[in-house]
Amino acid sequence: MPFIPHTKEDTEEMLKTIGAPDLDALFDEIPANLIIDSLDNVPVGLSEMEITRLMHRRAAQDGAPQCFIGAGAYEHHVPQAVWDVATRGEFYSAYTPYQAEASQGTLQTIYEYQTMITELTGLDVSNASLYDGASGLAEAALMAVRGNRKNKSGRILLAPGVNPRYEQVALAIAGSQGITFDRLPMDRATGNATATLDDDEAPVAVVIQQPSFLGTLEEADRLTDWAHACGAFVIAVVNPTSLALLKAPGHWGEKGADIAIGEGQPLGIPLSSGGPYFGFMTCKQQQVRQMPGRIVGRTTDLNDETGFTLTLQAREQHIRRTKATSNICTNQGLMVTAATIYMSLLGYDGLRKVALRSQQNTTRLVAGLTAIDGIERLFDGPHFHEAALRFDRPVAPVLEALAAQDILGGYDLAASMPELDNAVLVCATETKMDADIDAYVAAMAHIFAKETRRSA
Amino acid sequence: MSELPGDLLYTSEHEWLRREDDGNVTIGVTDHAQAALGDLVYVELPELGQDVESGGDMAVVESVKAASDVYAPIDGIVVAVNEDLADDPERINADPYGDGWIVKLQPSGDIDEGALLTPVAYQTLLDEEDA
After folding, report:
1. Once rounded to an integer, what is the mean pLDDT over residues B32-55?
2. Contacts A–B by Cβ distance under 8 A
3. Which residues from A are below 8 Å from B when comparing CB atoms?
4. CATH number of B9-109
Protein backbone atom coordinates (compact mmCIF):
# COMPACT_ATOMS: atom_id res chain seq x y z
CA MET A 1 0.00 0.00 0.00
CA PRO A 2 2.22 2.86 -1.20
CA PHE A 3 1.95 6.31 0.28
CA ILE A 4 2.04 8.96 -2.47
CA PRO A 5 2.13 12.52 -1.13
CA HIS A 6 0.69 15.52 -2.97
CA THR A 7 3.06 17.33 -5.27
CA LYS A 8 3.35 21.11 -5.04
CA GLU A 9 1.35 21.30 -8.28
CA ASP A 10 -1.42 19.09 -6.80
CA THR A 11 -1.71 21.33 -3.77
CA GLU A 12 -1.82 24.51 -5.85
CA GLU A 13 -4.47 23.09 -8.14
CA MET A 14 -6.63 22.06 -5.18
CA LEU A 15 -6.26 25.46 -3.55
CA LYS A 16 -7.20 27.16 -6.82
CA THR A 17 -10.26 24.94 -7.20
CA ILE A 18 -11.66 25.91 -3.81
CA GLY A 19 -10.48 29.50 -4.08
CA ALA A 20 -8.07 29.57 -1.14
CA PRO A 21 -4.89 31.64 -1.50
CA ASP A 22 -2.64 29.29 0.50
CA LEU A 23 -2.72 26.38 2.95
CA ASP A 24 -2.76 28.66 6.01
CA ALA A 25 -6.03 30.14 4.79
CA LEU A 26 -7.68 26.78 5.51
CA PHE A 27 -7.04 27.38 9.22
CA ASP A 28 -8.25 30.99 9.34
CA GLU A 29 -11.13 30.06 11.64
CA ILE A 30 -8.70 29.26 14.47
CA PRO A 31 -8.47 32.42 16.62
CA ALA A 32 -5.06 34.07 16.29
CA ASN A 33 -4.42 34.05 20.04
CA LEU A 34 -4.60 30.23 20.07
CA ILE A 35 -1.90 29.82 17.46
CA ILE A 36 1.69 29.44 18.63
CA ASP A 37 4.71 30.31 16.52
CA SER A 38 7.21 27.83 17.87
CA LEU A 39 7.47 24.70 19.97
CA ASP A 40 10.01 25.82 22.55
CA ASN A 41 10.03 22.56 24.49
CA VAL A 42 10.46 20.32 21.49
CA PRO A 43 14.11 19.86 20.50
CA VAL A 44 15.25 20.27 16.93
CA GLY A 45 15.17 17.23 14.67
CA LEU A 46 18.05 14.75 14.63
CA SER A 47 19.72 13.19 11.64
CA GLU A 48 19.36 9.45 11.06
CA MET A 49 22.90 8.92 12.36
CA GLU A 50 22.26 10.93 15.49
CA ILE A 51 18.96 9.22 16.29
CA THR A 52 20.47 5.76 15.72
CA ARG A 53 23.27 6.57 18.15
CA LEU A 54 20.81 7.93 20.73
CA MET A 55 18.53 4.89 20.53
CA HIS A 56 21.44 2.43 20.71
CA ARG A 57 22.71 4.24 23.81
CA ARG A 58 19.29 4.05 25.46
CA ALA A 59 18.80 0.40 24.50
CA ALA A 60 22.18 -0.44 26.02
CA GLN A 61 20.96 0.93 29.37
CA ASP A 62 18.54 -1.99 29.54
CA GLY A 63 21.45 -4.43 29.57
CA ALA A 64 20.59 -8.04 28.81
CA PRO A 65 18.92 -9.36 31.94
CA GLN A 66 17.07 -12.65 32.24
CA CYS A 67 13.38 -11.74 32.44
CA PHE A 68 11.07 -13.68 34.75
CA ILE A 69 8.35 -11.01 34.72
CA GLY A 70 5.02 -11.55 33.01
CA ALA A 71 2.02 -9.74 34.50
CA GLY A 72 0.36 -9.09 31.14
CA ALA A 73 3.31 -8.92 28.72
CA TYR A 74 5.30 -12.06 27.98
CA GLU A 75 8.73 -12.71 26.50
CA HIS A 76 8.37 -15.37 23.83
CA HIS A 77 10.74 -16.46 21.12
CA VAL A 78 9.94 -14.60 17.91
CA PRO A 79 11.17 -16.49 14.83
CA GLN A 80 13.40 -14.31 12.63
CA ALA A 81 11.01 -14.70 9.70
CA VAL A 82 8.19 -12.88 11.51
CA TRP A 83 9.68 -9.41 11.30
CA ASP A 84 11.61 -10.12 8.10
CA VAL A 85 8.26 -10.63 6.39
CA ALA A 86 6.25 -8.06 8.36
CA THR A 87 8.69 -5.27 7.50
CA ARG A 88 8.48 -5.87 3.74
CA GLY A 89 7.35 -2.75 1.91
CA GLU A 90 3.97 -4.25 1.04
CA PHE A 91 3.11 -4.67 4.72
CA TYR A 92 5.05 -1.84 6.29
CA SER A 93 2.27 0.41 7.51
CA ALA A 94 0.89 0.70 11.01
CA TYR A 95 -2.46 1.86 9.71
CA THR A 96 -5.57 -0.32 9.65
CA PRO A 97 -7.17 1.08 6.51
CA TYR A 98 -10.59 2.17 5.35
CA GLN A 99 -11.80 0.64 2.12
CA ALA A 100 -10.58 3.16 -0.40
CA GLU A 101 -6.97 2.77 0.64
CA ALA A 102 -6.89 -0.96 1.22
CA SER A 103 -5.16 -3.33 -1.13
CA GLN A 104 -6.43 -6.89 -1.52
CA GLY A 105 -3.23 -8.17 0.10
CA THR A 106 -3.70 -6.01 3.19
CA LEU A 107 -7.34 -7.05 3.45
CA GLN A 108 -6.48 -10.73 3.02
CA THR A 109 -3.86 -10.53 5.77
CA ILE A 110 -6.43 -9.06 8.14
CA TYR A 111 -8.97 -11.68 7.08
CA GLU A 112 -6.48 -14.48 7.81
CA TYR A 113 -5.73 -12.86 11.18
CA GLN A 114 -9.44 -12.72 12.01
CA THR A 115 -9.85 -16.37 11.05
CA MET A 116 -7.00 -17.44 13.33
CA ILE A 117 -8.23 -15.38 16.28
CA THR A 118 -11.80 -16.67 15.97
CA GLU A 119 -10.41 -20.23 15.92
CA LEU A 120 -8.29 -19.58 19.00
CA THR A 121 -11.15 -18.03 20.97
CA GLY A 122 -13.92 -20.30 19.68
CA LEU A 123 -16.16 -17.36 18.77
CA ASP A 124 -17.81 -16.34 15.50
CA VAL A 125 -16.42 -12.94 14.54
CA SER A 126 -13.18 -11.03 15.04
CA ASN A 127 -12.43 -7.40 14.33
CA ALA A 128 -9.17 -6.24 12.77
CA SER A 129 -7.63 -5.43 16.22
CA LEU A 130 -7.71 -2.86 19.00
CA TYR A 131 -4.97 -0.78 20.62
CA ASP A 132 -4.14 -3.26 23.38
CA GLY A 133 -5.71 -5.66 25.85
CA ALA A 134 -6.53 -2.98 28.41
CA SER A 135 -8.47 -0.71 26.05
CA GLY A 136 -10.05 -3.91 24.73
CA LEU A 137 -11.76 -4.35 28.09
CA ALA A 138 -13.20 -0.84 27.85
CA GLU A 139 -14.53 -1.55 24.35
CA ALA A 140 -15.97 -4.89 25.50
CA ALA A 141 -17.72 -3.18 28.43
CA LEU A 142 -19.25 -0.56 26.11
CA MET A 143 -20.24 -3.31 23.70
CA ALA A 144 -21.94 -5.32 26.45
CA VAL A 145 -23.91 -2.27 27.57
CA ARG A 146 -25.10 -1.69 23.98
CA GLY A 147 -25.87 -5.35 23.35
CA ASN A 148 -27.47 -6.38 26.64
CA ARG A 149 -30.30 -3.89 26.32
CA LYS A 150 -32.58 -5.44 28.94
CA ASN A 151 -30.11 -4.54 31.69
CA LYS A 152 -29.81 -0.79 32.21
CA SER A 153 -27.56 -0.94 35.29
CA GLY A 154 -24.28 -0.15 33.52
CA ARG A 155 -22.69 -2.33 36.17
CA ILE A 156 -19.76 -4.51 35.16
CA LEU A 157 -18.54 -7.15 37.62
CA LEU A 158 -14.89 -8.16 37.43
CA ALA A 159 -13.51 -11.43 38.70
CA PRO A 160 -10.78 -10.73 41.29
CA GLY A 161 -8.15 -12.01 38.87
CA VAL A 162 -8.75 -9.37 36.19
CA ASN A 163 -5.58 -7.35 35.54
CA PRO A 164 -5.83 -4.21 37.74
CA ARG A 165 -4.36 -2.08 34.93
CA TYR A 166 -7.14 -3.20 32.61
CA GLU A 167 -9.68 -2.04 35.17
CA GLN A 168 -7.97 1.36 35.44
CA VAL A 169 -7.92 1.83 31.68
CA ALA A 170 -11.52 0.64 31.26
CA LEU A 171 -12.65 3.02 33.99
CA ALA A 172 -10.78 5.92 32.37
CA ILE A 173 -12.40 5.24 28.98
CA ALA A 174 -15.89 4.02 29.91
CA GLY A 175 -16.36 5.44 33.41
CA SER A 176 -17.69 8.76 32.16
CA GLN A 177 -20.46 6.93 30.26
CA GLY A 178 -22.31 5.73 33.34
CA ILE A 179 -20.47 2.41 33.51
CA THR A 180 -19.25 1.20 36.90
CA PHE A 181 -16.76 -1.54 37.66
CA ASP A 182 -17.02 -3.70 40.79
CA ARG A 183 -15.05 -6.74 41.88
CA LEU A 184 -16.40 -10.14 42.80
CA PRO A 185 -14.95 -11.36 46.11
CA MET A 186 -11.81 -13.51 46.04
CA ASP A 187 -11.52 -16.95 47.56
CA ARG A 188 -8.26 -16.49 49.46
CA ALA A 189 -7.35 -20.17 49.19
CA THR A 190 -7.50 -20.36 45.40
CA GLY A 191 -7.28 -16.71 44.33
CA ASN A 192 -10.38 -17.23 42.22
CA ALA A 193 -13.84 -15.69 42.07
CA THR A 194 -16.46 -16.98 44.47
CA ALA A 195 -19.38 -16.11 42.16
CA THR A 196 -22.01 -14.97 44.59
CA LEU A 197 -23.95 -11.81 44.06
CA ASP A 198 -23.50 -9.59 47.11
CA ASP A 199 -26.59 -7.49 46.35
CA ASP A 200 -29.68 -7.38 44.19
CA GLU A 201 -28.52 -5.40 41.21
CA ALA A 202 -27.79 -7.78 38.34
CA PRO A 203 -24.68 -6.85 36.35
CA VAL A 204 -24.83 -6.10 32.64
CA ALA A 205 -21.66 -8.15 32.19
CA VAL A 206 -19.24 -10.32 34.14
CA VAL A 207 -15.55 -10.23 33.22
CA ILE A 208 -13.53 -13.43 33.65
CA GLN A 209 -9.77 -13.43 33.06
CA GLN A 210 -8.32 -16.84 32.23
CA PRO A 211 -5.60 -17.49 33.28
CA SER A 212 -6.10 -14.83 35.93
CA PHE A 213 -3.68 -11.97 36.50
CA LEU A 214 -2.42 -14.00 39.47
CA GLY A 215 -1.69 -16.98 37.22
CA THR A 216 -4.51 -19.14 38.58
CA LEU A 217 -7.18 -20.92 36.57
CA GLU A 218 -10.72 -19.75 37.21
CA GLU A 219 -13.68 -22.13 37.09
CA ALA A 220 -14.65 -20.52 33.80
CA ASP A 221 -17.51 -22.91 33.02
CA ARG A 222 -19.24 -22.41 36.35
CA LEU A 223 -18.73 -18.63 36.34
CA THR A 224 -20.04 -18.35 32.78
CA ASP A 225 -23.20 -20.29 33.56
CA TRP A 226 -23.70 -18.28 36.74
CA ALA A 227 -23.31 -14.98 34.88
CA HIS A 228 -25.73 -16.04 32.16
CA ALA A 229 -28.25 -17.12 34.80
CA CYS A 230 -28.02 -13.55 36.18
CA GLY A 231 -28.87 -12.21 32.70
CA ALA A 232 -25.35 -10.86 32.27
CA PHE A 233 -23.04 -11.05 29.26
CA VAL A 234 -19.73 -12.82 29.77
CA ILE A 235 -16.58 -10.98 28.72
CA ALA A 236 -13.54 -13.26 28.59
CA VAL A 237 -10.03 -11.81 28.99
CA VAL A 238 -7.65 -14.43 27.65
CA ASN A 239 -3.98 -14.97 26.93
CA PRO A 240 -3.70 -16.17 23.32
CA THR A 241 -0.79 -18.54 24.04
CA SER A 242 -2.79 -20.27 26.76
CA LEU A 243 -5.60 -21.02 24.30
CA ALA A 244 -3.44 -23.73 22.73
CA LEU A 245 -4.01 -25.68 25.97
CA LEU A 246 -7.09 -24.26 27.69
CA LYS A 247 -10.73 -24.37 26.65
CA ALA A 248 -11.63 -21.55 24.25
CA PRO A 249 -13.95 -18.92 25.77
CA GLY A 250 -16.54 -19.61 23.07
CA HIS A 251 -17.00 -23.02 24.71
CA TRP A 252 -17.11 -21.94 28.35
CA GLY A 253 -20.18 -23.26 30.18
CA GLU A 254 -23.36 -24.09 28.36
CA LYS A 255 -23.53 -21.07 26.08
CA GLY A 256 -19.96 -19.78 25.91
CA ALA A 257 -18.60 -16.30 26.55
CA ASP A 258 -20.30 -13.55 24.55
CA ILE A 259 -17.19 -11.44 23.94
CA ALA A 260 -13.50 -12.30 24.22
CA ILE A 261 -10.65 -9.80 24.34
CA GLY A 262 -6.99 -9.97 25.17
CA GLU A 263 -3.47 -8.70 24.72
CA GLY A 264 -2.03 -9.87 21.41
CA GLN A 265 1.60 -9.15 22.33
CA PRO A 266 2.53 -12.80 23.10
CA LEU A 267 1.93 -13.61 19.40
CA GLY A 268 5.23 -12.47 17.94
CA ILE A 269 5.51 -8.96 19.34
CA PRO A 270 8.68 -8.20 21.34
CA LEU A 271 8.37 -6.70 24.83
CA SER A 272 9.89 -3.42 23.53
CA SER A 273 9.74 -1.62 26.88
CA GLY A 274 5.93 -1.73 26.83
CA GLY A 275 4.72 -1.25 23.28
CA PRO A 276 3.42 -1.00 20.66
CA TYR A 277 1.22 -4.04 21.27
CA PHE A 278 -2.25 -4.82 19.94
CA GLY A 279 -5.55 -5.99 21.36
CA PHE A 280 -7.77 -8.67 19.88
CA MET A 281 -11.54 -8.96 20.15
CA THR A 282 -14.04 -11.60 19.09
CA CYS A 283 -17.74 -12.09 19.76
CA LYS A 284 -20.79 -14.16 18.96
CA GLN A 285 -22.52 -13.50 15.66
CA GLN A 286 -25.52 -11.92 17.47
CA GLN A 287 -23.28 -9.11 18.75
CA VAL A 288 -21.46 -8.33 15.53
CA ARG A 289 -23.24 -5.00 15.02
CA GLN A 290 -22.05 -3.86 18.45
CA MET A 291 -18.42 -4.66 17.68
CA PRO A 292 -16.11 -1.68 17.26
CA GLY A 293 -13.44 -1.28 14.58
CA ARG A 294 -12.76 -2.65 11.14
CA ILE A 295 -14.05 -6.08 10.08
CA VAL A 296 -12.86 -7.70 6.84
CA GLY A 297 -15.14 -10.11 5.02
CA ARG A 298 -14.62 -12.48 2.12
CA THR A 299 -16.89 -12.13 -0.88
CA THR A 300 -17.22 -12.78 -4.61
CA ASP A 301 -16.70 -10.00 -7.12
CA LEU A 302 -18.49 -9.35 -10.43
CA ASN A 303 -16.18 -11.80 -12.20
CA ASP A 304 -17.00 -14.56 -9.73
CA GLU A 305 -13.56 -14.27 -8.16
CA THR A 306 -12.89 -14.38 -4.45
CA GLY A 307 -12.14 -10.98 -2.98
CA PHE A 308 -11.86 -9.30 0.40
CA THR A 309 -13.67 -6.21 1.58
CA LEU A 310 -14.32 -4.19 4.68
CA THR A 311 -17.79 -5.08 5.87
CA LEU A 312 -20.44 -3.82 8.31
CA GLN A 313 -18.94 -0.35 7.96
CA ALA A 314 -22.20 1.41 8.75
CA ARG A 315 -21.33 0.93 12.46
CA GLU A 316 -18.21 3.00 12.07
CA GLN A 317 -17.34 6.61 12.66
CA HIS A 318 -16.72 7.58 9.03
CA ILE A 319 -20.38 6.74 8.31
CA ARG A 320 -22.26 6.72 11.60
CA ARG A 321 -20.48 9.83 12.97
CA THR A 322 -21.27 10.47 16.65
CA LYS A 323 -23.48 7.37 16.87
CA ALA A 324 -20.65 5.02 15.85
CA THR A 325 -19.97 1.99 18.01
CA SER A 326 -16.58 3.45 18.85
CA ASN A 327 -14.07 6.03 17.69
CA ILE A 328 -11.23 3.54 17.56
CA CYS A 329 -9.20 3.73 14.41
CA THR A 330 -6.29 1.53 15.24
CA ASN A 331 -2.74 1.93 14.16
CA GLN A 332 -1.90 -1.63 15.10
CA GLY A 333 -2.00 -3.05 11.58
CA LEU A 334 1.70 -3.87 11.58
CA MET A 335 1.48 -5.71 14.92
CA VAL A 336 -1.45 -7.71 13.56
CA THR A 337 0.56 -8.57 10.45
CA ALA A 338 3.41 -9.84 12.65
CA ALA A 339 0.98 -11.87 14.78
CA THR A 340 -0.57 -13.42 11.68
CA ILE A 341 2.86 -14.46 10.40
CA TYR A 342 3.80 -15.76 13.87
CA MET A 343 0.68 -17.92 14.09
CA SER A 344 1.16 -19.14 10.51
CA LEU A 345 4.76 -20.17 11.21
CA LEU A 346 4.01 -21.93 14.48
CA GLY A 347 0.72 -23.51 13.57
CA TYR A 348 -1.47 -25.13 16.16
CA ASP A 349 1.20 -27.62 17.22
CA GLY A 350 3.88 -24.96 17.52
CA LEU A 351 1.72 -22.74 19.69
CA ARG A 352 0.86 -25.75 21.82
CA LYS A 353 4.56 -26.51 22.30
CA VAL A 354 5.22 -22.91 23.34
CA ALA A 355 2.37 -23.07 25.84
CA LEU A 356 3.40 -26.46 27.24
CA ARG A 357 7.07 -25.55 27.56
CA SER A 358 6.16 -22.26 29.28
CA GLN A 359 3.93 -24.08 31.71
CA GLN A 360 6.63 -26.67 32.44
CA ASN A 361 9.30 -24.03 32.91
CA THR A 362 7.15 -22.10 35.36
CA THR A 363 6.40 -25.32 37.23
CA ARG A 364 10.16 -25.98 37.51
CA LEU A 365 10.77 -22.41 38.67
CA VAL A 366 7.98 -22.53 41.27
CA ALA A 367 9.21 -25.88 42.60
CA GLY A 368 12.74 -24.53 42.92
CA LEU A 369 11.77 -21.27 44.57
CA THR A 370 9.28 -22.76 47.03
CA ALA A 371 11.95 -25.21 48.21
CA ILE A 372 13.67 -22.14 49.68
CA ASP A 373 12.85 -21.46 53.31
CA GLY A 374 10.70 -18.30 53.36
CA ILE A 375 8.99 -18.70 49.96
CA GLU A 376 5.64 -20.37 49.47
CA ARG A 377 2.89 -20.45 46.88
CA LEU A 378 0.17 -17.90 47.51
CA PHE A 379 -2.66 -20.08 46.15
CA ASP A 380 -3.44 -23.76 45.78
CA GLY A 381 -4.55 -25.14 42.46
CA PRO A 382 -3.17 -25.21 38.95
CA HIS A 383 -1.40 -22.37 37.16
CA PHE A 384 -0.49 -21.76 33.54
CA HIS A 385 2.84 -20.03 32.88
CA GLU A 386 2.76 -17.65 35.81
CA ALA A 387 2.34 -18.09 39.56
CA ALA A 388 1.95 -15.93 42.65
CA LEU A 389 4.42 -16.52 45.49
CA ARG A 390 4.61 -15.09 49.01
CA PHE A 391 7.88 -14.13 50.67
CA ASP A 392 8.41 -14.00 54.43
CA ARG A 393 9.86 -10.52 53.90
CA PRO A 394 9.23 -7.45 51.73
CA VAL A 395 9.50 -8.19 48.02
CA ALA A 396 11.15 -5.04 46.67
CA PRO A 397 14.61 -5.44 48.28
CA VAL A 398 14.78 -9.05 47.09
CA LEU A 399 13.95 -8.03 43.51
CA GLU A 400 16.59 -5.29 43.71
CA ALA A 401 19.21 -7.78 44.84
CA LEU A 402 18.29 -10.07 41.93
CA ALA A 403 18.37 -7.17 39.46
CA ALA A 404 21.93 -6.45 40.58
CA GLN A 405 22.72 -9.93 39.25
CA ASP A 406 20.93 -9.26 35.93
CA ILE A 407 17.82 -11.21 36.91
CA LEU A 408 14.40 -9.57 36.64
CA GLY A 409 12.91 -11.79 39.29
CA GLY A 410 9.20 -11.05 39.09
CA TYR A 411 6.39 -8.54 39.39
CA ASP A 412 5.92 -7.04 42.85
CA LEU A 413 2.20 -7.06 43.67
CA ALA A 414 2.55 -4.54 46.51
CA ALA A 415 1.37 -1.59 44.41
CA SER A 416 -1.54 -3.16 42.53
CA MET A 417 -2.80 -5.66 45.13
CA PRO A 418 -1.46 -4.56 48.52
CA GLU A 419 -3.95 -6.76 50.36
CA LEU A 420 -1.81 -9.74 49.32
CA ASP A 421 1.12 -9.31 51.70
CA ASN A 422 4.63 -9.66 50.26
CA ALA A 423 3.34 -11.23 47.08
CA VAL A 424 5.16 -11.51 43.76
CA LEU A 425 4.30 -12.91 40.33
CA VAL A 426 6.90 -15.04 38.58
CA CYS A 427 6.87 -16.36 35.03
CA ALA A 428 9.22 -18.52 32.99
CA THR A 429 8.29 -18.80 29.31
CA GLU A 430 9.79 -21.17 26.73
CA THR A 431 12.66 -18.69 26.31
CA LYS A 432 14.21 -19.94 29.55
CA MET A 433 16.56 -22.92 29.62
CA ASP A 434 16.75 -25.22 32.61
CA ALA A 435 20.13 -23.68 33.44
CA ASP A 436 18.58 -20.16 33.49
CA ILE A 437 15.88 -21.30 35.89
CA ASP A 438 18.36 -23.11 38.13
CA ALA A 439 20.63 -20.04 38.16
CA TYR A 440 17.69 -17.89 39.24
CA VAL A 441 16.75 -20.33 42.01
CA ALA A 442 20.38 -20.45 43.22
CA ALA A 443 20.62 -16.65 43.27
CA MET A 444 17.37 -16.43 45.20
CA ALA A 445 18.48 -19.07 47.71
CA HIS A 446 21.69 -17.14 48.28
CA ILE A 447 19.82 -13.87 48.89
CA PHE A 448 17.37 -15.48 51.30
CA ALA A 449 20.13 -17.27 53.23
CA LYS A 450 22.26 -14.12 53.50
CA GLU A 451 19.34 -11.95 54.61
CA THR A 452 18.20 -14.54 57.12
CA ARG A 453 21.72 -14.84 58.55
CA ARG A 454 21.95 -11.08 58.86
CA SER A 455 18.67 -10.77 60.73
CA ALA A 456 19.45 -13.76 62.99
CA MET B 1 -40.54 11.07 -8.07
CA SER B 2 -41.24 9.15 -4.90
CA GLU B 3 -44.58 7.87 -3.75
CA LEU B 4 -46.41 9.98 -1.16
CA PRO B 5 -49.74 8.71 0.22
CA GLY B 6 -52.18 11.50 0.96
CA ASP B 7 -53.67 10.00 4.13
CA LEU B 8 -50.43 10.09 6.19
CA LEU B 9 -48.55 12.68 8.21
CA TYR B 10 -44.81 13.23 7.73
CA THR B 11 -41.74 14.59 9.47
CA SER B 12 -38.73 16.51 8.25
CA GLU B 13 -36.69 13.40 9.21
CA HIS B 14 -38.38 11.55 6.34
CA GLU B 15 -40.69 9.45 8.47
CA TRP B 16 -44.41 8.87 8.10
CA LEU B 17 -47.19 8.39 10.70
CA ARG B 18 -50.55 6.72 10.33
CA ARG B 19 -53.20 7.30 13.01
CA GLU B 20 -54.91 3.93 13.47
CA ASP B 21 -58.53 3.45 14.55
CA ASP B 22 -57.44 2.10 17.96
CA GLY B 23 -55.66 5.37 18.76
CA ASN B 24 -52.18 4.02 18.16
CA VAL B 25 -49.77 5.50 15.63
CA THR B 26 -47.84 3.44 13.07
CA ILE B 27 -44.48 4.81 12.00
CA GLY B 28 -42.12 4.07 9.14
CA VAL B 29 -39.69 5.78 6.82
CA THR B 30 -40.76 7.38 3.55
CA ASP B 31 -40.22 6.11 0.03
CA HIS B 32 -37.76 8.97 -0.43
CA ALA B 33 -35.81 7.83 2.66
CA GLN B 34 -35.59 4.19 1.59
CA ALA B 35 -34.45 5.20 -1.88
CA ALA B 36 -31.77 7.46 -0.41
CA LEU B 37 -30.54 4.76 1.99
CA GLY B 38 -30.39 2.00 -0.61
CA ASP B 39 -30.81 -1.71 0.11
CA LEU B 40 -31.46 -2.18 3.81
CA VAL B 41 -29.52 -4.93 5.56
CA TYR B 42 -30.49 -4.54 9.20
CA VAL B 43 -33.07 -2.88 11.42
CA GLU B 44 -32.52 -2.40 15.12
CA LEU B 45 -35.92 -2.28 16.81
CA PRO B 46 -36.83 -0.85 20.22
CA GLU B 47 -38.06 -2.96 23.14
CA LEU B 48 -41.79 -3.39 23.64
CA GLY B 49 -43.04 -1.16 26.44
CA GLN B 50 -40.18 1.30 25.98
CA ASP B 51 -41.03 4.96 26.59
CA VAL B 52 -40.00 7.25 23.78
CA GLU B 53 -39.84 11.03 23.65
CA SER B 54 -40.51 13.12 20.61
CA GLY B 55 -37.19 13.73 18.87
CA GLY B 56 -35.43 10.84 20.62
CA ASP B 57 -34.05 7.93 18.62
CA MET B 58 -36.00 4.69 18.82
CA ALA B 59 -34.73 2.49 15.97
CA VAL B 60 -31.86 2.23 13.52
CA VAL B 61 -32.13 1.39 9.84
CA GLU B 62 -28.89 0.24 8.28
CA SER B 63 -28.16 -0.08 4.58
CA VAL B 64 -25.00 -1.17 2.83
CA LYS B 65 -23.82 2.43 2.88
CA ALA B 66 -25.32 4.14 5.92
CA ALA B 67 -26.97 3.65 9.26
CA SER B 68 -29.64 6.15 10.25
CA ASP B 69 -31.63 6.70 13.38
CA VAL B 70 -35.39 6.57 13.29
CA TYR B 71 -36.67 9.28 15.62
CA ALA B 72 -39.85 9.19 17.64
CA PRO B 73 -42.12 11.86 16.09
CA ILE B 74 -44.33 11.98 19.21
CA ASP B 75 -44.17 11.05 22.89
CA GLY B 76 -45.44 7.54 23.53
CA ILE B 77 -44.95 3.90 24.45
CA VAL B 78 -43.81 1.21 22.02
CA VAL B 79 -46.76 -1.21 21.67
CA ALA B 80 -45.62 -3.15 18.60
CA VAL B 81 -42.52 -3.59 16.45
CA ASN B 82 -42.35 -5.14 13.01
CA GLU B 83 -40.52 -8.37 13.89
CA ASP B 84 -40.54 -9.44 10.22
CA LEU B 85 -37.89 -6.80 9.55
CA ALA B 86 -35.36 -8.81 11.57
CA ASP B 87 -35.15 -11.43 8.83
CA ASP B 88 -36.29 -9.31 5.94
CA PRO B 89 -35.25 -5.65 6.28
CA GLU B 90 -35.73 -5.14 2.54
CA ARG B 91 -39.48 -4.98 3.17
CA ILE B 92 -38.78 -1.32 3.87
CA ASN B 93 -37.40 -0.91 0.35
CA ALA B 94 -40.21 -2.89 -1.25
CA ASP B 95 -43.17 -1.43 0.61
CA PRO B 96 -42.20 1.48 2.88
CA TYR B 97 -45.79 2.46 3.70
CA GLY B 98 -47.15 -1.07 4.16
CA ASP B 99 -45.17 -4.23 5.06
CA GLY B 100 -42.20 -2.00 5.80
CA TRP B 101 -43.74 -0.28 8.82
CA ILE B 102 -41.34 -0.15 11.79
CA VAL B 103 -42.98 0.72 15.11
CA LYS B 104 -46.45 1.27 16.59
CA LEU B 105 -46.65 3.80 19.41
CA GLN B 106 -49.42 4.45 21.90
CA PRO B 107 -49.35 8.26 22.15
CA SER B 108 -48.83 9.65 25.66
CA GLY B 109 -51.13 12.59 25.03
CA ASP B 110 -52.72 14.57 22.26
CA ILE B 111 -50.75 14.58 19.05
CA ASP B 112 -49.57 18.04 18.05
CA GLU B 113 -50.28 17.85 14.34
CA GLY B 114 -48.86 21.33 13.92
CA ALA B 115 -45.41 19.87 14.61
CA LEU B 116 -45.85 17.35 11.78
CA LEU B 117 -46.01 17.82 8.02
CA THR B 118 -48.99 17.37 5.71
CA PRO B 119 -48.34 15.53 2.43
CA VAL B 120 -48.21 18.88 0.67
CA ALA B 121 -45.74 20.32 3.17
CA TYR B 122 -43.55 17.21 2.96
CA GLN B 123 -43.59 17.39 -0.85
CA THR B 124 -42.47 21.01 -0.60
CA LEU B 125 -39.61 19.90 1.66
CA LEU B 126 -38.54 17.28 -0.87
CA ASP B 127 -38.71 19.82 -3.69
CA GLU B 128 -36.55 22.21 -1.69
CA GLU B 129 -34.01 19.47 -0.97
CA ASP B 130 -33.86 18.69 -4.66
CA ALA B 131 -33.46 22.31 -5.64
Report:
1. 93
2. 21
3. 149-150, 289, 314-315, 319-320, 323
4. 2.40.50.100
